[in-house]
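Researcher: Before we compare anything, I want clean individual predictions. No alignment, no superposition, just each chain on its own. First chain goes here; please echo the sequence and then give the structure tokens.
Model: Echoing the first chain and its structure:
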Amino acid sequence: DVFLAADPFQREALSRSRRLLVWPRSQPRLEQLERCRRLQALGLLTVLRDEDLAEPAALAQHVRDALVRPAPDASNAPLAFDGAERAAERLLQGLESSRLRLRVDAAIAP
């Protein structure tokens, strides 16, 4: 299987060891492009450039190349897809810590 994936679908495809060809956006921010380049450096996907999509022969070659490569194995890669959950936990911990400090301050205030 070879997937042409938009950014939100990469997690699903990576977790299922699918070969990915991605075309990340680079405007208005470079976040997607940078993330995809890092995943490409780990051998987990192939980043397509604008010219790869403009030229059908180039895109066809990328698909052929992907089909002969072994499926990527993301199980040993240093990936974490739980950033939103971890951020929420840290935020809640910070709020709880602030509430505790307010209670202690109120208890010892003259």
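Researcher: Okay. Second chain, same rules.
Model: Second chain and its structure:
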Amino acid sequence: PDLATFVEGLQAFLDETVELQAFQYEIALEGRRDRELNGVVRDLYDAYHDATREALRSAGAADDDVTTRLVFAALDGLSFQQLVYGPDAQTDACVQRLRELLAAAPKRRP
């Protein structure tokens, strides 16, 4: 894997799992009111954070904590926008721009 294929197919995946994506956001919001559920949501987000770090590392991109959080936040936001805007969200175009930004950023050190 490299940056050219980083999170390839995100828009199609979101289109295919729209109900699951909506459910996860609903649970995340409910977790603000329910302390026990908040722990589950945080665990889920931690797992997504870890997966993002591994994807960045595999692509040869910077994978420090700040970059990882920034990239995950971008992907999370794109996912939410896909729910709101559907096909008009331009998710694939935004992912391409994210790849370009990552390619221009300093790489991780060996």
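Researcher: What stands out in the second chain?
Model: The chain has five helices and no strands. Additionally, The longest helix spans residues 35-58.
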